[in-house]
Each structure stands twice: as C-alpha cells, then as structure tokens.
Specification:
The chain is of the alpha+beta class. Helices cover about 40% and strands about 20% of the residues. α2 packs parallel to α3.
C-alpha cells in the first residue's frame, strides 16, 4: 500500500507532466505550502531558472500578516507575485499547484494573482 507521501508525489508528477504539454513555452507559477508559510515562484522551465519569487517571509509583508498559514496570507503573496511579474513584463503563465488540491490557500493565492493581472 502506498503512503500518503507517495500518493502526493504521484499527483505532483502527473500534474507537472500535464502542464508541460499545455504550457507552449509559457512560464510556470509554482506554489509550495508548508504548515507555517506559503511560497510562490515563477519559473522558466526551458532555461531552468527562477525568475520571480514571493513568500510570507518577504520583507514587504513583514508586520502585515498575523500568520503565514492562512488564506489572507496566501492572498497577499498572490498579489505580491503578480505585482512583481507585471513589473518585469510577465502576464501569461501556467499555474502549477503541485500535488495540492485546488482549495483553501492554494485557491486564494491563484485568485489574488489573477485579480492583480496574471493570466492563466
């Protein structure tokens, strides 16, 4: 029987392979969620390079967040990553939720990024 971690990694791999087929050279917004914080980064898979990153640990969000582990913190990170991407000239991306279910903090981050100008 597979462990929960093995099932998570299988879901993550399946999601990434589907994204590569649909991406058409677009950059990827990857999300990592821990029990205390949430992280997002825009990655160029062709060059293997992280272009932009944002998290609840950023200096710009210091003092604005009660905790880094709730939906309001995820919304702030989504807004921050979208603002940084627009500043550099990135508008079209693909959203990589990893192995996480599109719900809660993951959904809040994606909705905030869309609301602030990213298209995916």
């Amino acid at each position: 029987m597979l462990s929960l971690r093995d099932l998570f990694l299988r879901r993550k791999k399946r999601n990434r392979s589907a994204l590569r087929k649909k991406a058409n050279g677009r950059l990827r917004l990857s999300v990592f969620r821990s029990s205390k914080h949430i992280y997002a980064q825009i990655i160029d898979d062709l060059r293997g390079f992280t272009m932009i990153a944002a998290s609840t640990l950023d200096v710009e969000l210091n003092g604005k967040l009660k905790t880094g582990a709730d939906s309001s913190a995820a919304m702030m990170v989504g807004k921050l990553i979208a603002e940084r991407a627009i500043k550099v000239g990135i508008t079209k991306i693909v959203f990589d939720r990893g192995g996480y279910i599109y719900h809660g903090r993951i959904k809040a981050l994606a909705d905030a990024a869309r609301k602030n100008g990213l298209l995916f």
